[in-house]
């Protein structure tokens, strides 16, 4: 992680869309077959012995398969889940860090089934490849809640509910901002490189698609290259170094699909002698990002990141709301999108329009950063 930041809980603002019936990556190698519990000890420690030895499980037992620890966003998300599903509040959280590998998530889910947890929560690394294991969850009669990224399954009764971001809208908003900003600066020619997220993850699919459509729609915009930075700072830097070698001075916009990739890209650009900043007409390179974590917003304040589209990680209370509804025997919304903001270094663009909707753009100040929870 680039910088340490405070993670705290924030109340969830959810937008209901449809109604249906109930139903740097972690450096450690190796993986426990039995996921660890919040009470039982550490996350994936790399040895093969069960870690769930802190006593008998009490309260509502939840198995949570987390993507990994690839980004500041992910750390905030894990913290939100762990602080929400605490022992004090009557839960046992069995937490598993999949180290960005779907096969680890499948193993963890099977282990949760074996342990007969009451709920399974899955933050899926990619969208596809879930049908078989989710059918096993359904057959075991365990409600499954998907959080953050989505799954693409043939039968949507395989999960009970999903809560997360509209990643395509995030991409559309970022590109609407870029269009308005370039127009305000009188620059028509944009030569863009895209450091993508983990290929096949909803966050990558939506953000890449938003950019690809905007490039198609805007004369003068060229997408020079796209490559995955796997949502990590190290890989983001590596990919940017290779883009610099291939395209050098041509590049005037770097579209990073999360904050950690942006930190890596900024390091690569600065080391290669480029100036990252906000003024296209002076030859500065614009770095755009997603997430709006504390460290990302600090880089917006200093002008290193010109625009940062929020992706809200505080899903713990949102998942708890779903579980409480299920516990009470109530129906839950099948899909819930989180409302998100967009932030910029300057005040040249104060609002943007995507389709029929318009969104305010907030200029980042220290006060704005201090008022945020992650
Ligand atoms: O799925 C959410 C994305 O995953 C966040 O943008 C990124 O930082 C994380 O790793």
SSE arrangement:
Layout: E1 14-19, E2 36-37, E3 60-66, H1 72-84, E4 91-97, H2 102-114, E5 119-122, H3 131-139, E6 144-147, E7 161-164, H4 167-184, E8 190-196, H5 202-217, E9 221-228, H6 233-247, E10 253-256, H7 259-271, E11 286-291, H8 294-301, E12 307-310, H9 316-327, E13 333-338, E14 342-344, E15 351-354, E16 357-363, H10 366-370
Parallel strand pairs: 3-4, 3-5, 5-6, 6-7, 7-13, 8-9, 8-10, 10-11, 11-12, 14-16
Antiparallel strand pairs: 1-13, 2-4, 12-14, 15-16
Helix pairs in contact: 1-9, 4-5, 6-7
Bound molecules: alpha-L-arabinofuranose.
Alpha-L-arabinofuranose is lined by residues 70-71, 73-74, 148-149, 203, 231, 258, 290-291, 311.
Write up this protein.
The protein is α/β, with parallel strands linked by helices and 374 residues long. The chain contains 10 helices and 16 strands. The strands form 2 sheets. The protein has an 8-stranded mixed sheet, with helices on both faces. An 8-stranded mixed sheet has the order 9-8-10-11-12-14-16-15, sandwiched between helices. Strand 8, helix 5 and strand 9 form a beta-alpha-beta unit. Helix 1 packs parallel to helix 9 and helix 4 runs parallel beside helix 5. The N terminus is likely disordered. It binds alpha-L-arabinofuranose. Alpha-L-arabinofuranose binds next to helix 1 and strand 11.
